[in-house]
Amino acid sequence: MKRTLIILLAVSLVIAGFVSWFASPHPDGLERVAEDLNFIDRAEDPPIEVMPDYTVPGVRGFLSNGLSGVIGVLAVFGLVMLAGIIMNRKKRRGDSHAPSSH
Amino acid sequence: MHIPSGFLEPQVWIPMTGVSAAGVGYALKKSGDFVDERKTPVMGVMAAFIFAAQMVNFPVFSGTSGHLMGAALATAILGMWPAMVVMTSVVLVQALLFQDGGLDTLGANTFNMCILGCMVSGAIIGIGTKFGKRAFYPSVALASWLSVVGASAACALQLWLSGTSPIQVVLPAMVIVHAIIGAFEAFITIVSIKFIVSVNPKIIQIFSENTEISEREINSIELKKPGDVT
């Protein structure tokens, strides 16, 4: 299973880091509808921009997009692992009531 | 389908935030019942994979693109509750780090793509697989399509309630575009599952088999509970 996870994580990094460069730049379904129905202007600038539009500030072009993708993949993976710790901690606390434990 | 900041009015996004917070909390609790240290990395790589795939917008028709949502993919591999946790992690990172989807609209986006998307997928795949293994891929395809169309319809309702457009205009507009994007969703989801299964066929069983085992475990844990003092 370890090998599987490493392969899938590597594939994710390649997709986010390289394949994403070839993504269509056109607006997505919702943005297109918002343009057609004239409410796209309601969109507000976010209060803080970290990596807007999947670019790393200060890095240009291909590298910026790829790097943001790699950071995103690792951040998402990390967040789920963190959620896992929270989920498992609850359970371990439940297990500690079992008679077998000290 | 990430709703940007400003599209929704407070009377829409505040309740949606509440509903999503409750839903994700419940999904965390339900997942925690059978997710262990061995399974969390599988959820982690699924989240990573879906995040990566979402970055690759494909052209749909003139001047419009779409990208994978991933709710059906996550649900097919992990089951509904862990899939919700995974999808929420993706949407949360997209909003916080990439400003893809607003912070005020985070609850609505979570509801549409994560909670509703995974519930629709879970229901359809659950019913489909009752007809045997051969129904797995067709039900996944239907789940993919309907999860995207359903999320777009929910999004249209939220936009209408926020006064952006009349319902008879925004609902068909959203549903028609996403009916096409949904077909791509089905294709990418099937290809992704086939690829993941080709890497390791056990990956699906890990979650489906252990759900049953864990239910027995949960029952035994719950039997002990009356003695617990917390």
The value of Rg of chain A in angstroms is 20 Å
CATH class of chain B: Mainly Alpha
Helix content of chain A: 55-70%
Uncertain runs of chain A with pLDDT below 50, 5 residues or more? 96-102
- Rg of chain B, please? 18 Å
Strand composition percent of chain A? under 5%
Oligomer state equals heterodimer
Q: What series of H and E elements makes up the topology of chain A?
A: HHH
Shape call of chain B: globular
Sheet of most strands of chain A: none
The H-and-E topology of chain B, N to C, reads as HHEEHHHHHH
Q: How far apart are the first and last residues' alpha carbons of chain B, in Å?
A: 43 Å
- Major sheet size, sense and barrel closure of chain B: 2 strands, antiparallel
* Percent of residues in β-strands of chain B: under 5%
> What number is the mean pLDDT of chain B?
90
Helix content of chain B: over 70%
Number of helices of chain B: 8
Strand order of the largest sheet of chain B: 1-2
Largest contact between chains:
A-B, 66 and 78 residues
Class by alpha and beta content of chain A:
mainly alpha
Describe the structure.
The complex is a heterodimer of chains A (102) and B (230). Chain A is built from three helices and no strands. Chain A is mainly α and 102 residues long. Chain A has a domain at 1-21 and 56-102. Chain A is extended, with a radius of gyration of 20 Å. By secondary structure, chain B is mainly alpha-helical. Chain B has helices at residues 10-32, 40-55, 71-78, 80-98, 106-128, 136-161, 167-199, 202-224, and strands at residues 58-61, 64-66. The interface between A and B is large, with 66 and 78 residues.
